[in-house]
TrEMBL record:
A GO BP annotation: phosphoenolpyruvate-dependent sugar phosphotransferase system
Keywords recorded for this protein, A-Z: Magnesium, Metal-binding, Phosphotransferase system, Sugar transport, Transferase, Transport
MF GO annotations: metal ion binding; transferase activity
Binding site for Mg(2+): 81
Organism: Enterococcus malodoratus ATCC 43197
Active site residues according to the UniProt entry: 78
Obligatory cofactor(s): Mg(2+)
Gene3D superfamilies assigned: Phosphotransferase system, lactose/cellobiose-type IIA subunit
Name assigned to this protein: PTS system lactose/cellobiose-specific IIA component
Amino acid sequence: MTKEEQEIVQLISIAGESKAKAFEALKCVKTKDFDLAKDLIAESRNLDLEAHNIQTDLITRELNEDVESSNVGLLMVHAQDHYMTSQLARDLIETLISVLQ
């Protein structure tokens, strides 16, 4: 596995962890533990930022003609899918927490 592919797999993993934290926050809303829910959303947001930084680096290298980048295609599309759904889940759950509190 190339370094770039490892970074993409890391992006997938971080996005999955972010989404898991967001859904854990939603479970806390059911028990009215809003403080923990907000903490978990903050953790999710931090993970999304970490994923965003990896994504930005990968895209920047892809666009830089001076840096050789492998065409990972489907793997990167898969990573993008995970990253975008984790952001969407976090945004929706964060909104639900604010509405239900």
